[in-house]
Sequence to fold (500 residues):
Amino acid sequence: MGLRDILTGRHTVKGPASDDKLFAITTAYITLESEHSIEPTGDAAIVFQALATSDFESTLRDTEEVVKATCGDSGTTVATEDDSFGYRWMVLRNAAGAPSVEDLAVGINAVSSSIEAAGHGERLLCAVFAFADGQKRRIYFIYNYKRGSWYPFVPVGGSSNERSTERELQLKAQMGTELPIEPELERWFPLWGIPI
Amino acid sequence: MAAKRSNFGKDTGLQARMLLTMFLLGLVYVVFLGVLFAVGAGAGIIIVVAVVLLALQFFGSDKIALASMGVKEVSASQEPELHSIVERLCVQADLPKPKIGVIETSMPNACAMGKSKKNTTVCATRGILELLSPAELEGVMAHELTHVINRDVMVMTLASFFATLASMIAQFTLFFGGGFGGGYGRGRDEEEELMLILLVSVLVYAISFLLLRALSRYREFAADRGSAVLTGRPSALASALLKISGTMERVPTQDLRKAESMSAFFIMPARTKQSLMNLFADHPSLEKRLAALERLESQLQGAA
Fold:
């Protein structure tokens, strides 16, 4: 943000990072699986601010069609839901028993590209890929669109909003070379109530 | 409740007194420097003193304000909803997460304090947490975060620095203009000169005071706009402002008096009635803010 923006108090929202690192997950998951026995659950989601305009709504309808057409062959389904904060989630689920991170990444990318193409790129927040470790505990990898970087998020089960920072830091050490991990820990924002 | 912690001595017309205090504070500042000048200190020393004073104000003000408002920092487990709202806005605004505080008062209000993006506290009162829906609260918090992004604390501090500097320059020219013209016959004119210096300093300060107030109002509009841009929901903020102002008038006077002194830091001034001239207001009127948000909403819808 430049001096002029500060003086005029004019603030524009940053769009997605120009260097898209979403597809890094499609190679990273192989290491997760083979070396750390962390398996993909076959679910991924993208979260964004849904503008209450007819323009945005029609973009979303088109997007859903595109994703269905792209992922339909592999049996991947698309579902939309709003959370209590007014953000919209588009959830992609692989057919049961056939998790494919590649399919999910292609689907998520189709959503983000069509939102960007409609000129609403700055509304994109995150993409989330769900994994489970040997003890069936949930592990999420979150891709921050503005930063173009990934970070792990491991919520501790139960009703309280707690995360296992220890596990997340272990994952960072394990995956640091494979995934572009967000270097600033204070930007590892939790997402509570992820619908996948 | 916080209301029991009543504070005697903060009873009548506190807002007016606050204004007067700020004005007097600046006056003292100027008079002090003027006297320094008259005593014979060089311009260099005066500028050094001014910079030191401003640095103190800049680095100390937020801590003093936080302490005096009774801000209590809350963890994510204490206020999960507020934390989640701010976290999502931080992702959206590409900001590191600020500290989050709650003020235990039933007055609905919110404020942000901090010098930089890395060192910020955003606060909400218990009243606003209970009053607003998540979307409205998000609009309010986005307004506060925009103050942080726009570096309003820094801008206002620097703006007042230049006002002070301007008044010093005025003194400087007057002093030397008079000094050289009078030659060695200074002794007789000294008192008159001093009066003139003070008069000009006061005048310059009075004008810059009004300008700074206007600047503050403008920054509020900018923060409203920033909030709308950040959340994509101008009407949510408008609805929040309506709710807040509606409650403002119904809240018991004791709380109103308590909260009044902190008006400058809040999203809404504690008193919504136009009791003072608009010129002196640091927040624009509700009608103007709503109109601006309405324009933003129609722009948004019109983009379809």
About this structure: Helices of chain A lie at 3-8, 25-36, 54-71, 101-117, 165-175.
